Amino acid sequence: KNEVEQSPQNLTAQEGEFITINCSYSVGISALHWLQQHPGGGIVSLFMLSSGKKKHGRLIATINIQEKHSSLHITASHPRDSAVYICAVSREAAGNKLTFGGGTRVLVKP
Amino acid sequence: ETGVTQSPTHLIKTRGQQVTLRCSSQSGHNTVSWYQQALGQGPQFIFQYYREEENGRGNFPPRFSGLQFPNYSSELNVNALELDDSALYLCASSSIGWPTEAFFGQGTRLTVV
Description:
heterodimer, A: mainly beta, five-stranded antiparallel β-sheet, B: mainly beta, seven-stranded mixed β-sheet, four-stranded antiparallel β-sheet, about 0% helix
C-alpha cells in the first residue's frame, strides 16, 4: 500500500461545479502539500498545511491530522483548472523530501 | 515562475548512454531534491543535496548520481541508461528550515530509445 493515496484518479466536471479531491496518508507527517501539474510538466505548489484549513482564491485545502486525511476543494470550477492535482507529504525526520500520491487528473468542460 | 530552471527541457538518448541534467535553484535556497516521474504516476524521490552533500536517497541504483555546487545549483547524472529511465525528471529547491515549501522547475523529459 502506498503511503499517500488519492481519490479519485480521474475527475470530469462541468464549468461552475464544485470539485473535491481527497488524500489519505498512512504515516505521521509534519506537513501536507497540494501541488498542481499542467500538461507541460512543471509543478506549482498550491498549499502547504499542517493543520486546519487554507484558502486561496477559489481553492480551499483542509487537513484532519487525527484521521490522516486532507481534501482539496475547487469552487466554481473553470476549464483553466484542468490539470493534475497531486498530494504530497513531508516529515521532519526525512528532511524536505516529499512523498507523493499518484495524482488526480481533473478535466473541467466548458 | 518559481525561479527554478532546468536544462535541457527535452532529451533523447540511446540505451547504454550517459546523461547529465541540470538544475538552478531559487535564490536563497540551499537544498535541492530530484524526482523521477514516470508517465501517469506521481514523482518518486531520487535524492536530495544540502550544502553540496547528499542528504537522503530514495530507492534508485548507484548509476543515478548527483552533485551540488557552491552556488547551490545541481546536476543529476544517470549512467548506463535503460529504457525504463524514460521519464520526467524534476528538481525542487527549498531552504532547510522547517516546514518549508518546495519550488519546482519545469522538468526535463528524458526519452531513452
